[in-house]
From TrEMBL:
Naturally occurring in which organism (per UniProt): Mola mola
Residues of the full protein shown: 37 to 187 of 188
Protein name per UniProt: Nucleoside diphosphate kinase
Assigned keywords, A-Z: ATP-binding, Cell cycle, Cell projection, Cytoplasm, Kinase, Magnesium, Metal-binding, Nucleotide-binding, Nucleus, Transferase
UniProt: ATP binding residues: K11, F59, R87, T93, R104, N114
Cofactor needs: Mg(2+)
Length: 151
């Protein structure tokens, strides 16, 4: 059974717009397994570590402001090729270029309010999961249909 995991964050605009349920539904429907979930007001410290590769970008201050403007919902999803698949499900960083059928392509218009985060590589996923879910917060549970979705 494939144990690949990725970090998905419903950003403050997604929470404000009551999109949490629809986003979770897409990942459940696809067949992925939820192994961690929490709602929090993210600290600037955690966020600066999360976006450490972007600190020199001109949009970085606005990104920090946006991401700390309200609560977020952060999740870890597990399953076969979940990192690549969830990037496809989330869509292009800029919603104007995101395909219909993706979260960003269906729910957003502008890159500075793009509803959701998804880890972009195995290294990023490992790093981000460790950052947002330190210790032993993730659950290891058996899903009865995992022979369908994970092998
Ligand atoms: P992604 O979220 O698709 O992985 P990223 O890691 O390059 O994209 O950037 C992280 C976030 O920063 C992105 O979701 C929205 C914001 N961002 C990226 N490029 C931007 C830009 N040109 N203007 C404003 N915000 C931007
Ligand atoms: Mg990214």
């Amino acid at each position: 059974v494939e144990k690949e995991q990725t970090l998905i964050v419903v950003k403050p605009d997604g929470v404000q717009r009551r999109l949490i349920g629809q986003i979770i539904q897409r990942f459940e429907q696809r067949g992925f397994k939820l192994v961690g979930l929490k709602m929090l007001q993210v600290s600037e410290d955690l966020l600066s570590q999360h976006y450490c590769q972007l600190t020199s970008k001109p949009f970085y201050p606005r990104l920090m402001e946006y991401m700390t403007s309200g609560p977020v919902v952060v999740m870890v999803w597990e399953g076969h090729k979940v990192i690549q698949s969830s990037r496809m499900m989330v869509g292009h960083t800029n919603p104007a270029e995101a395909q219909a059928g993706t979260v960003r392509g269906d729910f957003s218009l502008h890159v500075s309010r793009n509803v959701v985060h998804a880890s972009d590589s195995l290294e990023a996923a490992l790093r981000e999961i460790q950052l947002w879910f330190p210790g032993k917060e993730l659950l290891n549970w058996d899903c009865i249909d995992q022979y369908i979705t994970c092998e």
